[in-house]
């Protein structure tokens, strides 16, 4: 079996290319009209249609049972003594076995096809994400794209089930109706009329369900996008104390989703009611009209009809779900088609051809051989819409020769990063043409770090060249950091580099670029994230070093030494190139940001002093603020492996779900289901009594009386069906709302460490796939389970009443059945857990790829990442295939067991008819009832165990949600409540504070003591990983301290409710954060300021013009504000902090990504606007703290120096003076 499993996986990997090839043919033939559905048909249509033949045979063999039953009952009525009865009895069991084999084969081949299709669709979606530029992808939100992978792919695959069922179910219904005609002639038309009348009703309901589903999916996309946004920026949200605000917005979106889900569920309930009551109404009207036409009922005819009614139940009940499944599949395939139709980036060769054609008349052909990048009259935008022509680059013409260091400079928002992205092809080219020569390496402004080892991040799919690898580590000042890590370069890096400092992330991204040995290097402001010592080292050794010295390097920077050392300087302003030249001419150029910002003379630094300082400091440099020096390898596994429970799903999970649904509604559902089955059994028993009475005495009761009682049973059954259907819908909706809200509340109240240790994709999986199961699949399968259980209970009671010998069979039968189900359930449950655990890495990898797709495309590493993703899909397919084999194993064993029961009852009935047994088996009516009840026991037993197992599988989603409802919670409460004006003075005291990020790690802050006087401005400086940001983490209680105490205005912050504390402090985080809403909501989501105040602050932060250009305060920010530069986003975050009017303002590298001139103006703004406020500034640029009242110098979590910056500057032996000497950078 294992060999066959691996063989299947190989086949699956082979056929993945099939769908992609068919889709590309679709696009080539008709790009605007390309349909994923047609591509699926061309790829898998013929094997799928061939399965239809097996489906026909399977459906036809299902009707052999009722026909054999008819002959057997007639044989019993005649009381013949030959062997025909035994032949018929055994044939009844053998037909069941034959049907089970054909059914198993059909299911096996169909599921194999579905596995192929699912893997193909997932791979095609992933490949598309790798190939579509950021501008083109902006048509879709990130949440929408994640929904394509998590939900739409599965719904499209379900088309395989629904499509064959669309013709199979009417075929089964048609044959059943014909056989009914042979039994009751035209009387069956009465039942048929009821069925036909319900068709337009169900069609109307299906249309409403389709509309509600489409609206629900849009809201689901928005909810998943908001959830992803919340999880991605949870640290910043906690610092702002906005997590409750964001969760309330998320709950509003969820309530709209649930509104459409409720519409769908209640419409589903009507569907269930109409189709579930149809067989009962069918029998009532058919037998009623038959008797009113003057015919007499007999046992053979009645119970053959009942068996045929039973054959009708499954197709009639399934039909609305089939229609809904088809509707869902078509909606999802249309959504996927729209995404897959997005245009992909043009290959480099095409761009080159295009370039040569355009410039041939201008004699640029020869020049192009010496040019690394040529841009001719280029206009670009981030929007994918033709209507939105907000040009970020405007008529840019630029020729960059090969082998030069090119510095791109300009103020914040001038278009520097956009220039690099246009070269990469990430922007929409509105006008002009772009040509780049050779391979490209890219280090983005916000580094994208891959979950994996240090080595994985640097190699990025390339083979290991040990010498170049070592040289790269040294050039990027990573060799010391890596040597201090447990596991060295095989140390595991968490999602988004969570266990690295900001500087280390930047250097790792640079190392990745340099190792690639590319022709062109695009480096976006990589020096701003590191301190002055490290910046000088990596500039000299990496950017100017021997590894890349003859390559073209395009560096966006505000760094003075980098600008002065450049071979060519490009000055940008508001999307235009205003000047191109060398550094000697720059001082007299239009760019005024170069002069006057360098506070120190370059001759002040001697290269020997620099190298000595760098060497000494590197020896002290920890890997991160968490300082993982000399930590066991196990402690380096910052990302915890996803837990999966073992054994059966515990009873507490079912209790919790019932509790979320409401105990009262759970009891109502249970009682209505039991009473509904009792009324149905009563209806059948009354029919058997009617048959026997008709045979014995005509005068005891009139036909009208029998019909009246039958009507009463029918009305009771219909009413209870309606109660059950709507109770399930109500209970399922209530549980969906409660589970989501409880899960969300628990997750947002979790400490930051939980998010550092848990990949966002794993948490998002709970809010997408698992919650979708709890919303939709779980109530549905629970409903089926309950119906199957009470159905089996009813059959067991009736059979025990009719045939006493059945009780003898019941005990051994139950023993075998329990053994089978125990063995199967324990296997399938673990397989489902493995399925969930193997699914999470797919979504985590997909989310990670969405974030870093531009980097992957820049390095031309699409094939490498596609191969990694294919491996994850392969692992997922293995568990799915194992699930399939286990379920089919069970199905076969159950069919054999049930066939033996049917044969036993039939044979005992034949023996009883001979009168050779001491116990009578009752009247012909009861014997007929027993046989008609025994026939469907095959499907009902299998359906019960399948639904029971499926319920356990679906309950795993509930179990996984409950896991995250039990995560550690922040200490939110405190007894010290604050007035609105707190803190009034802004005095901050750290007294012997020690803080660790994890118990196994050394202290990030080590017994640190200092006092910041109220109203003073204090700078915190130190090497990368010295513990600067840890001071803010301790102050904002993001990480609990394990020693000492922190006082603000004399109050111990531990005694203050944590959200109140954060709400009274203002912060500008290291990574700028904008969310998808209006600019006004981004700046002041709590609506505490009026428009005049907001515009005033924006003007002081020098970002008013950009906001006006974007459309004012009501302009919508999309996709984390990518339409603004990183520098502009930081300015907006500063404006947001100043609007808060707090007495304490914390700035974490807030000027790192802005040009020197803007940074200088901002410092003056902070000095004037924040007069009287306590300002704590974490800085790499030493000159930004020179005008402050005090400076704290940290190293390895210890305060090593404190004092007035100017006084320390004059002391040449001070550490601060050493930093200052390096700041010619």
TrEMBL record:
Primary localization: membrane
Gene3D superfamilies registered for this protein in UniProt: ABC transporter type 1, transmembrane domain, P-loop containing nucleotide triphosphate hydrolases
Organism from which the protein derives: Hibiscus syriacus
EC number(s) on file: 7.6.2.2
SMART domains: AAA
Name under which the protein is recorded: ABC-type xenobiotic transporter
Subcellular locations according to the entry: Membrane
One Pfam family named in its UniProt record: ABC_tran
Iron as UniProt keyword: no
InterPro entries according to UniProt: AAA+_ATPase, ABC1_TM_dom, ABC1_TM_sf, ABC_transporter-like_ATP-bd, ABC_transporter-like_CS, ABC_transporter_C-like, P-loop_NTPase
Keywords: ATP-binding, Membrane, Nucleotide-binding, Repeat, Signal, Translocase, Transmembrane, Transmembrane helix, Transport
Family per similarity comment: Belongs to the ABC transporter superfamily. ABCC family. Conjugate transporter (TC 3.A.1.208) subfamily.
Signal sequence, start to end: 1-22
Domain ABC transmembrane type-1: 53-328, 667-953
SUPFAM superfamilies according to UniProt: ABC transporter transmembrane region, P-loop containing nucleoside triphosphate hydrolases
Recorded catalytic activity of this chain's protein: ATP + H2O + xenobioticSide 1 = ADP + phosphate + xenobioticSide 2
Plastid in keyword set: no
Root EC class: translocase
Domain ABC transporter residue range list: 373-599, 988-1221
GO cellular component: membrane
Annotated transmembrane regions: 175-199, 269-293, 299-327, 657-678, 705-726, 780-799, 805-824, 888-913, 925-948
Single GO molecular function: ABC-type xenobiotic transporter activity
Lineage: Eukaryota, Viridiplantae, Streptophyta, Embryophyta, Tracheophyta
């Amino acid at each position: 079996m294992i060999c066959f499993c691996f063989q299947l996986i190989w086949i699956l990997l082979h056929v993945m290319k099939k769908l992609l090839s068919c889709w590309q043919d679709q696009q080539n033939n008709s790009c605007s009209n390309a349909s994923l559905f047609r591509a699926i048909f061309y790829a898998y249509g013929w094997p799928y249609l061939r399965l239809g033949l097996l489906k026909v045979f399977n459906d036809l063999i299902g009707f052999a049972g009722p026909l054999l039953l008819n002959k057997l009952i007639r044989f019993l009525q005649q009381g013949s003594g030959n062997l025909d009865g035994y032949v018929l009895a055994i044939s009844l069991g053998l037909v069941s076995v034959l049907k089970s084999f054909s059914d198993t084969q059909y299911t096996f081949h169909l599921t194999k096809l579905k596995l192929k299709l699912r893997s193909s669709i997932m791979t095609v979606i992933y490949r598309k994400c790798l190939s579509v530029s950021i501008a083109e992808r902006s048509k879709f939100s990130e949440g929408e794209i994640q929904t394509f992978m998590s939900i739409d792919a599965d719904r499209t695959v379900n088309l395989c089930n629904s499509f064959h069922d669309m013709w199979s179910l009417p075929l089964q219904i048609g044959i059943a109706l014909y056989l009914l005609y042979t039994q009751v002639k035209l009387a069956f038309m009465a039942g048929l009329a009821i069925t036909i009348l319900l068709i337009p009703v169900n069609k109307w309901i299906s249309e409403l369900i389709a509309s509600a589903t489409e609206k629900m999916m849009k809201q689901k996309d928005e909810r998943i996008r908001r959830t992803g946004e919340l999880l991605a920026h949870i640290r910043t949200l906690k610092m702002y104390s906005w997590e409750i605000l964001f969760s309330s917005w998320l709950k509003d979106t969820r309530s709209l989703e649930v509104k459409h889900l409720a519409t769908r569920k209640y419409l589903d309930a009507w569907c269930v009611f109409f189709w579930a009551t149809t067989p009962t109404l069918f029998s009532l009207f058919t037998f009623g009209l038959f008797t009113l036409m003057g015919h007499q009922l007999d046992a053979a005819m009645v119970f053959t009809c009942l068996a045929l009614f039973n054959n009708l139940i499954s197709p009639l009940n399934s039909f609305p779900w089939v229609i809904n499944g088809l509707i869902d599949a078509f909606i999802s395939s249309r959504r996927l088609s729209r995404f897959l139709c997005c245009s992909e980036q043009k290959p480099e060769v095409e761009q080159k051809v295009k370039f040569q054609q355009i410039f041939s008349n201008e004699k640029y052909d020869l020049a192009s051989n010496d040019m690394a990048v040529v841009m001719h009259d280029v206009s670009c935008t981030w929007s994918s819409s033709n209507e939105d022509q907000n040009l970020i680059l405007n008529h840019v013409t630029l020729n960059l020769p090969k082998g030069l260091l090119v510095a791109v400079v300009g103020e914040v928002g001038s278009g520097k990063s956009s220039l690099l992205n246009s070269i990469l092809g990430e922007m929409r080219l509105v006008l002009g043409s772009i040509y780049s020569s050779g391979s490209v390496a890219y280090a983005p402004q916000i580094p994208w770090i891959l979950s994996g080892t240090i080595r994985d991040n640097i190699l990025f799919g390339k083979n290991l060249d040990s010498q170049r690898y070592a040289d790269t580590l040294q050039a990027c000042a990573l060799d010391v950091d890596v040597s201090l890590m447990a596991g060295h370069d095989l140390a595991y890096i968490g999602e988004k580099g969570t266990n690295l400092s900001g500087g280390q992330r930047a250097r790792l991204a640079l190392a990745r670029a340099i190792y690639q040995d590319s022709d062109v290097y695009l480096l976006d402001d990589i020096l701003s994230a590191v301190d002055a010592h490290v910046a000088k080292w990596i500039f000299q050794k990496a950017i100017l070093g021997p590894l890349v010295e003859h390559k073209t390097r395009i560096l966006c920077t505000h760094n003075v030494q980098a600008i002065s050392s450049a071979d060519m300087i490009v000055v940008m302003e508001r999307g235009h190139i205003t000047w191109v030249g060398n550094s000697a001419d720059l001082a007299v150029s239009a760019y005024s940001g170069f002069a006057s910002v360098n506070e120190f003379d370059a001759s002040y630094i001697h290269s020997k002093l620099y190298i000595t300082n760098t060497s000494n400091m590197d020896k002290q440099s920890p890997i991160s603020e968490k300082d993982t020096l000399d930590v066991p390898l196990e402690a380096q596994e910052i990302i915890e492996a996803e837990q999966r429970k073992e054994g059966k799903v515990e009873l507490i999970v079912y209790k919790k779900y019932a509790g979320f649904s409401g105990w009262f509604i759970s009891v109502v559902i249970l009682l209505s289901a039991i009473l509904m089955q009792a009324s149905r059994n009563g209806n059948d028993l009354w029919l058997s009594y009617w048959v026997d009475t008709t045979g014995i005495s005509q005068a005891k009761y009139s036909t009208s009386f029998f019909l009246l009682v039958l009507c009463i049973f029918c009305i009771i059954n219909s009413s209870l069906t309606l109660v059950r259907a709507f109770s399930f819908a109500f209970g399922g909706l209530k549980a969906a709302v409660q589970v989501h809200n409880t899960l969300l509340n628990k997750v947002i109240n979790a400490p930051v460490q939980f998010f550092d240790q848990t990949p966002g994709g794993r948490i998002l999986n709970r809010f997408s796939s698992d919650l979708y199961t709890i919303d939709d699949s779980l109530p549905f399968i629970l409903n089926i389970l309950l119906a199957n259980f009470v159905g089996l209970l009813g059959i067991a009671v009736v059979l025990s009443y009719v045939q006493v010998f059945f009780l003898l069979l019941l005990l051994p039968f139950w023993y075998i059945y329990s053994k089978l189900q125990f063995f199967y359930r324990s296997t399938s449950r673990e397989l489902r857990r493995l399925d969930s655990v193997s699914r999470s890495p797919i979504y985590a990898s997909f989310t990670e790829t969405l974030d870093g797709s531009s980097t992957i495309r820049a390095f031309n590493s699409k094939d490498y990442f596609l191969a990694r993703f294919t491996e994850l899909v392969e692992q997922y397919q293995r568990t799915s295939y194992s699930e399939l084999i286990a379920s089919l194993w069970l199905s076969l064993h159950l069919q054999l067991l049930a066939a033996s029961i049917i044969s036993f009852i039939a044979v005992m009935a034949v023996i009883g008819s001979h009168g050779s047994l001491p116990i009578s088996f009752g009247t012909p009516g009861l014997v007929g009832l027993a046989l008609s009840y025994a026939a469907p026991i095959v499907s009902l037993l299998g359906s019960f165990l399948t639904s029971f197992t499926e319920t356990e599988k679906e309950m795993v989603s509930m179990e996984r949600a409950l896991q995250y409802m039990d995560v550690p919670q922040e200490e939110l409460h405190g007894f010290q409540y604050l007035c609105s004006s707190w803190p009034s003075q802004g005095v901050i005291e750290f007294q012997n504070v020690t803080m660790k990020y994890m118990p196994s790690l050394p202290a990030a802050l080590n017994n640190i003591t200092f006092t910041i006087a109220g109203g003073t401005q204090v700078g915190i400086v130190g090497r990368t990983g010295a513990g600067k940001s840890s001071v803010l983490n301790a102050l904002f209680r993001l990480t609990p301290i394990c020693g000492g105490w922190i006082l603000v205005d004399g109050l111990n912050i531990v005694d203050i409710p944590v959200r109140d504390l954060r709400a009274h402090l203002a912060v500008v985080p290291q990574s700028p954060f904008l969310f998808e809403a209006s600019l006004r909501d981004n700046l002041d989501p709590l609506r505490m300021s009026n428009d005049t105040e907001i515009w005033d602050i924006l003007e002081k932060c020098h970002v008013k013009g950009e906001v006006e250009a974007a459309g004012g305060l009501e302009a919508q920010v999309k996709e984390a504000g990518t339409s603004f530069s990183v520098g502009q986003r930081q300015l907006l975050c500063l404006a947001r902090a100043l609007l808060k009017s707090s007495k304490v303002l914390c700035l974490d590298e807030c000027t790192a990504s802005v040009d020197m001139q803007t940074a200088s103006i901002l410092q003056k703004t902070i000095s004037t606007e924040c007069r009287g406020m306590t300002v704590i500034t974490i800085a790499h640029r030493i000159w930004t703290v020179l005008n402050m009242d005090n400076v704290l110098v940290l190293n390895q979590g210890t305060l090593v120096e404190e004092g007035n910056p100017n006084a320390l500057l004059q002391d040449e032996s001070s550490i601060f003076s050493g930093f200052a000497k390096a700041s010619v950078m």
